[in-house]
Design brief:
heterodimer; A: 197 residues; mainly beta; Sulfite Oxidase, Chain A, domain 2; globular; B: 243 residues; alpha/beta; Elongation Factor Tu (Ef-tu), domain 3; Rossmann fold; 5-stranded parallel β-sheet; binds flavin-adenine dinucleotide; OxRdtase_Mopterin-bd_dom (chain A); Sulfite oxidase-like oxidoreductase (chain A); OxRdtase_Mopterin-bd_sf (chain A)
């Protein structure tokens, strides 16, 4: 038990099922980014997956839109302690992108327009655990929230859900990405409070 | 370890404005921070309920102390307690300081433009203080957007820095209420650009404040030709384009 602040009452929306330790619920949708919001034209957008052999698979915006789309509702958890329940998204499962990809490397590094990177083990992005999404709450995803398309990995802290995603490459080691080199945890499970180093 | 909670004594509390208060925290062991980093503060109510929020480090009190400055958000859960209710002699729990991106190091050699809105000035002040303490000679200047003169956090210290040698150039933008002879109104590219280091100087730019403020200013700078990778931002929350 921590230090008690006798005058502090708090709003106590905390004892909610589904809320990881140390998180509080918000109705708004805060933004965490390291720099300016890039503006990306979907005519130039491309998503590229590069394997250990150097072979790359890529999808244009139209090809991406023609992949099987999923609509789903999940809770999201930001390392800065807010969580938001019941967010509604539309996009393509990572399983779909990996369907014809031959790789045996266990880790990935996602990269974004604007230079941001984040590392993710394969076991955290396959089997219905991660998507490339382009709609939030029935609307096209706003640039400030990662539009035109972002990665969504809802079971990990939200910095892992790279905004303005442009591709990934396979890695044999779990090298750290951008936030992970800047003080944040290599993995980022909110239920284990894997926030910082 | 940055990720473990430690206990701080609140040794001093002073109001910077009617709604912002600086808290000086002391620890049983040494604590250090790079200008721009933040800490997490955890409050625990008598029944065990806890709430955590992030606050920028405003400055260090070597070797075992640091300061934070909290702006009260009227409907907020945590900030009204820290600004109004907490008293000197009480304790808080803190994790950090953390952050390796939105930071200024005394070894940095390029010119620096700081742009803050409201309480977003806090980490920028930490950079200013570290710049002074290190005797750094790289040009550093501040543009500070406030509602009015009475909302200026660190006002006395900023006045002294402006008058010192070498001076810290400070430009104020008044959005609601201005001293006589100064314009009032929201920031626009036209009012911003002439008052900051030009793109040709290729400054390192740090922008901090409410999310809407940061979004807007960062987008203007990119449009005006500042190098995108040289612009670092810290978004405090709140509404704006972000929500
Ligand atoms: C890295 C980081 C550093 C920060 N440093 C500081 C600091 O140095 N000083 C400081 O005062 N605050 C700072 N903040 C903001 C701080 O963490 C809290 O969000 C703020 O104090 C509000 O908390 P609260 O519990 O009072 O309000 P909450 O109960 O969390 O929120 C109340 C309402 O206000 C909105 N809101 C939240 N933040 C803001 C905002 N900044 N402006 C307008 N509306 C808002 C929320 O969306 C909500 O609707 C920082 C935030 C981050 C992420």
């Amino acid at each position: 038990m921590g230090i008690i602040s006798s005058g502090f009452r708090g709003r106590r929306n905390k004892d909610q099922p589904g809320l990881p330790p140390g998180q509080y619920l918000t109705e708004s949708f805060p933004v965490l980014s390291a720099g300016p919001t890039p503006r990306i034209d979907t005519a130039e957008w491309e998503f590229q997956l590069t394997t250990e052999t150097g072979q790359s698979h890529s999808w244009s915006w139209d090809e991406f839109q023609n992949l099987p789309q999923e609509e789903f509702t999940v809770d999201i958890h930001c390392v800065t302690s807010w969580s938001k329940f019941g967010t509604r998204w539309k996009g393509v499962s990572l399983d779909t992108f990996f369907q014809d990809v031959d790789t045996s490397h266990p880790y990935t590094m996602f990269s974004s327009y604007g230079g941001y990177t984040t590392n993710l083990p394969m076991e955290d992005i396959l089997n219905g655990k991660a998507w490339i999404v382009h709609q939030f709450d029935g609307e096209d995803l706003e640039p400030a929230h990662g539009g035109p398309a972002r990665l969504l990995v809802p079971h990990l802290y939200f910095w892992k859900s790279a905004k303005w995603v442009r591709g990934l490459r396979m890695m044999d080691r779990n090298d750290p990405g951008f936030w992970e080199t800047n003080g944040y945890n290599l993995h980022g499970d909110p239920w284990l409070e894997e926030r910082y180093w | 370890m940055s990720s473990t909670w430690r206990t701080a004594d609140v040794v001093e509390a002073r109001f910077e404005t009617a709604t912002a208060r600086t808290l000086a925290l002391q620890f049983p062991e040494p604590v250090s921070s790079i200008g721009g980093q933040h800490v997490d503060i955890r409050l625990t109510a008598p029944d065990g309920y806890t709430a955590v929020r992030s606050f920028s480090v405003a400055g260090t009190l070597p070797p075992t102390g640091l300061e934070i400055t909290v702006e009260e958000l009227e409907d907020g859960e945590v900030s009204p307690y820290l600004v109004r209710d907490l008293t000197v002699g009480e304790q808080l729990e803190m994790r950090g300081p953390v952050g390796g991106w939105f930071v200024w190091q005394p070894s940095d050699t390029s010119p620096v433009q700081l742009i803050g809105g409201g309480s977003g000035v806090v980490p920028l002040m930490a950079m200013v203080r570290s710049h002074r303490a290190a005797g750094s000679t790289v040009p550093m200047q501040l543009l500070y957007s406030v509602r009015g003169p009475s909302s200026i956090i660190y006002r006395g210290e900023l006045e002294k820095l402006e008058a010192s040698s070498p001076p810290l150039p400070v430009e104020y933008v008044y959005t609601r209420e201005a001293p006589p002879g100064e314009p009032v109104g929201r920031l626009s590219p036209a009012t911003l650009m002439p008052r900051i280091l030009p793109p040709a100087a290729d400054p390192a730019v740090f922008i901090c404040g409410a999310t809407g403020f940061v979004e807007t200013v960062a987008a203007w700078l990119v449009e005006a030709g500042y190098t995108e990778s040289r612009i670092k931002t810290e978004r405090y929350g709140g509404t704006g384009d972000g929500s």
